[in-house]
Design a protein that fits this description.
alpha/beta
Length: 145
């Protein structure tokens, strides 16, 4: 009986160890590794799955498109942190962009060169009903940095 309880406890502990994001579809809060960096957003879990966008936020969940995992480290963390900002501040895209850039600078994973590379990928974003065009987003993020 004791061995069964011990085995169950060990299995539970292994489930909490950080796992590379590509290794699973649903990642429990605090267990996401992006490019070797433990990405966390409080009690929010993360789902890796193909969606229409690069990333999305729903109450209590961040969804990352698998292609995020192929991006440079700073961009992986930017998109995750951007979606985490929606968990904190709500749907405003400018606020999410700004907070993600500020967090990247504060935590040392977003350099000026990284922000420039991110801007190169975002500059062609056309914008939509909730997102400003990429060039406007980049200009705003630059002021936040």
């Amino acid at each position: 009986m004791f061995k069964t309880i011990l085995a169950g406890a060990a299995a539970s502990m292994l489930a909490l160890l950080p796992q590379p994001a590509a290794a699973q579809r649903l990642i429990l809060p605090g267990a996401l590794l992006l490019a070797g960096y433990r990405a966390t957003c409080g009690p929010v879990d993360t789902m890796i799955e193909p969606i229409e966008d690069i990333a999305a936020a729903y109450r209590g969940r961040i969804v990352l498109h698998p292609r995020v995992l192929d991006l440079p480290r700073a961009q992986q963390l930017f998109w995750y942190t951007h979606e985490c900002a929606h968990q904190i501040f709500g749907p405003g895209e400018a606020a999410a962009d700004c907070w993600a850039v500020q967090q990247g600078r504060i935590n040392g994973w977003l350099s000026d060169a990284d922000l420039k590379k991110l801007g190169e990928t975002m500059r062609l974003f056309p914008g939509d009903a909730t997102h400003a065009p990429g060039t406007e987003r980049i200009a705003h993020m630059r002021t936040c940095y």
